[in-house]
Each structure stands twice: as C-alpha cells, then as structure tokens.
Specification:
Length: 145
Amino acid sequence: MKPQVALSSIIVELHVPNFKQVIEFYGKLGFKTVWQKPPKGQLGYLVMKKNSSVLAFFCGNSQVYNHSFFKRYPKNTPRGYGVEVCVYLSEESIGDYYNHVIKALGKKCIVEELKVKPWGSRDFRIIDPFGYYICVREPSNILEP
C-alpha cells in the first residue's frame, strides 16, 4: 500500500523566484514552513501550511523564469493572472484574521475588503509579492451548493 502523500488530490503549486519573500509574506499570514529544499537550478521546493490549508512553492530563484511554459512571457507578467488561491479559515474569526492581515502587511496588500458576498458568506482578497490573488474565506463545504 502506497503512503498518503497529500491532504488532498489537488495541490496548489505557485512558481516563484524568491523563497525568502514567500516565507516572510505567508509567514505574516500565519503559514508555517513544513519543509524546504533550497533552490538549486530548477530543483527548489517549499511547502507551507496554515491549519488545513497547504501551499507549495516551486523553484525559489531566477530559474523559475526558464520554465518551459512561463519563459514565453515577460518576467513582469503577474504570475497568478486569472488564478485565485482560496484559503478557508476554520479555527479563527475572519474579522480577527482580516485585522491581523492589515496589521501584519498593511492595507496595500488588500485588493478587496472584508464583506458579505451575494451568496451569504464573508471573504476578502489580497495579493502576494508575485501577483498571486488570494481569497480568504469563512469555512464552507464547497461540495454543497
């Protein structure tokens, strides 16, 4: 029997040029480093976790721009264009966490303030140093409409 390798069958992997910025930014959001393979060519990898939310980061150096797909685009293209990374809060109040994010990172990273959405739950959105768009949501079961 093969060991379980992930909490989910889908893992979000963000391709970034700098793990130090990732650790600093996501650390302020409450994510902790689970493990890290230092960047060397295109072999760097970093896994971070907050509660049951897991994010993986690839490369960690300028070699990320030589990835066979991404090298087609200018280096200043936002890496997460058209992608929203969702983080569900299960153990803390979304209002308290929103205030924590503002205190830790400042309002400049908030791109949509905390508010009740038409579907009845609250969320807010931030942007990370590499252009990834992050939605922080109240807990819900995405498998139920």
